[in-house]
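Hi there,

I know you've been waiting on this one. I reran it after we fixed the sequence typo, so this is the corrected version. Both the input and the resulting structure follow.
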Amino acid sequence: MAEDLSQAARISYTDQGQGEPALLFLPGWCGSRKVFDQLAATTAPRLRSLSLDWRGHGQSESPRGDFGSIDLVEDALSVIESSGAAHVVPVALSHAGWVAIELRRRLGSRISHLLFLDWIILEAPPPFLEVLQSLQDPSHWHQTRRQLFDMWLHGLDTPGLVQYVREDMGSYGFDIWARAGREISAAYAQAGSPLQALTHLAPAVPVLHLYAQPEDPAYLAAQQAFAANHPWFTVSKLAARSHFPTLEVADQIAAAIEQFVVQEPAA
């Protein structure tokens, strides 16, 4: 276990394994790095694996004031600096993908690949944007969170998955969930979609999106059509049933990561 003092909060992170590039596991909002425990343990024997808790999450310090996505970028940068890793591959769950994109903008070739897990990588659908707004409403956020949990766990009884959603994510209050709703909404409003944001990175960087949900074939087809015109982008549907595939198919994800990071980075 290592800790790094960022500008506003002490950031707790785990450092396993050796070598370059180092994987940097970035959890989504309102969840700790426990979501990566199994995956990081699987990748660490072959790839150095760093996993962090954002400020206000898990074992990291909670700042006194407000914070947003730009501060999460600083958290990630402080971990990279503290670890001494020269080259890093962010592995971002859900909306931590926005942080990963910004890391590439700032660090350039030190970020050789980007890997996203279960992200709404197309334009955000209106019902999802409505959920983000509801999370910012003190009178509705708790019901909205409960509905999200029920949707994520519908038909699933995997112990680690249920525990992570109900206990880990359920431990965060209105301040964190409202902040998540605000920051995620702002990212889509500014960028349009993650795919659009990625097209503005110059030079291009190899990107892999591994996802389990939704099951809609049109969602996969749209990404495959994008990939046909942007050879740096690859998508793969995982054999998992939840929004948190790291808790279901860690071995499958680890194998995909290891194969992906040996690719030569885009020129």
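Quick highlight: Residues 174-191 form the longest helix (18 residues).

Best,
R. S.
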